Amino acid sequence: MGIPWLARAIDKGRMLLQGGIGDYVFPCPMDEEILDRLGLSPDQFLTILKSSPGDGEVLQALSHRISALGPGDWMAFDVFLVRHSRLIAEADREEGRL
User: What is the pTM of this model?
Assistant: First the structure.
């Protein structure tokens, strides 16, 4: 859906719900920044994940929030990517995506 970090937040939230998050943290400040932009608390997000078994269902549950985002929100996501680019690249490298 074009929102940086959202897929990672979904994966970490699901791991937390399954009881095996390991060294990861949910919610981390980056998760909170994205969720705040979507108007969700971490607990509300976890509730969506509990009731939405697949990625399609999660995106459907978030679709009304995403469609309500304005140009300033999308610009904030671009700024998020720039501000956190080094951390994102490091995580990708550590997890074998680069």
Answer: 0.90
